[in-house]
Amino acid sequence: MAARPAPEKNCEHIDPRVEALVTDLIGRVADKWTMILLEILEEKGTQRFTQIARAVPDISQKMLTQTLRRMERDGMLTRTVHPVVPPRVDYALTPLGETLSEAFCGVWMWAEANLERVEHAREEFDARQVAV
Amino acid sequence: MAARPAPEKNCEHIDPRVEALVTDLIGRVADKWTMILLEILEEKGTQRFTQIARAVPDISQKMLTQTLRRMERDGMLTRTVHPVVPPRVDYALTPLGETLSEAFCGVWMWAEANLERVEHAREEFDARQVAV
DNA sequence: CGGTATCCTCCTCGATACTG
DNA sequence: CAGTATCGAGGAGGATACCG
Predict the structure, then answer these.
(1) Tens of each residue's pLDDT in chain B, 132 residues
(2) Which one of A104, A126, A129 would you mutate to disrupt binding with B, by most B Cβ within 10 Å of its Cβ?
(3) Could you give the domains of chain A?
(4) Do B43 and A13 touch (CB under 8 A)?
(5) What is the DSSP letter of A59?
(6) What is the pTM of this model?
């Protein structure tokens, strides 16, 4: 109970077997499109397929479908098909998806806050490479 | 100023031009190996190349070098070559790397806490697919 | 020890075309 | 509208061999 001077970190590590599984899960959620779709649904609430597509112009329809399906499978969001013509499909975050979105919030804020620092670091690095 | 009932979120959104850059940056840092190396260096402090390699047995030497270089370029860590024989190279997080590591902390905790929920969601989803 | 360099193989991802 | 199906290019990433 004495000599640990760094209580700033609450991100302590865990059972190695669990860690492998966690690492695996990280590999799937730490994906650019997943993060972006989480953000959009968190921000705008329930959205239809085309609404999401318009909100993320860079994504191909294929990737959008694929990512939404995987997120549905992982319990991040619900997909509701309304039996009308023309078809209408709503996507909404589940509570699980919302908690993940909140967890990623810190990363978004970090990226926003440190954009310039990273840019600067790159320039310095590249300059050093040329010099050598 | 009235009817917005959800002040729980402090992850508000931003200038679209900035957002594109942020999204880009996210694409580079939201990488499995980057997250894992950040964790290891945060947890264990300065490490040599082979120490890291041993700590992450699944990574190939190529990916390890590549990821470390990119992180160095982005200002996440420093690479110190000691001119001795045999060669010795130390890797250590910079303050910037440490803040990112902390930002990812929430995601690690989420993954650890929700592993079973995700597993369960997958089983349910897969069962539903077979049924249909 | 701490890398590069090279080759080779998946597998992601985009583009296009078609459907209920 | 909201997909599925198919094709094809390109890059990620592993295996191996060699170097300072």
Answers:
(1) 544 444 445 676 667 778 788 888 888 888 889 999 999 999 999 999 999 999 988 899 999 999 999 999 999 999 999 999 899 999 999 999 999 999 999 999 999 999 999 999 999 999 988 776
(2) A104
(3) 26-131 (1.10.10.10)
(4) yes
(5) S
(6) 0.87
